[in-house]
Write a structure and sequence with these properties.
The protein is an all-beta fold. Helices cover about 0% and strands about 55% of the residues. Strand 7 and strand 8 form a beta hairpin. The radius of gyration is 13 Å and the shape is globular.
Length: about 120
Amino acid sequence: QVQLVESGGGLVQAGGSLRLSCAASGGTFSSYAMGWFRQAPGKEREFVVAISWSGGRASYGDSVKGRFTISRDYNKNAVYLQMNSLKPEDTAVYYCAAMKYGLDEYEYWGQGTQVTVSS
């Protein structure tokens, strides 16, 4: 059983930056691809970015390409989302998720952290 805990959300002005963290426990961190998703009020959950279990490959949603960067630290069992040039439309609850190597769906999810970008 993998537990994921997000942190780092908050209120920021448009054009600003935030760094989200996701601490993982209860599993072999290097066996999981990690992803970030977000959900704004009244909207469906949206894929933001994912990083492979090896850390060698990342894929980004079109809306965040060039602004967001994902990274992972195997010593700390953590994954990070650096968000720059934030826009009001980035406002959402951001969720961290884990997908075990060899599978094709995210099995574990965090509780989410709120990001609010003011105009």
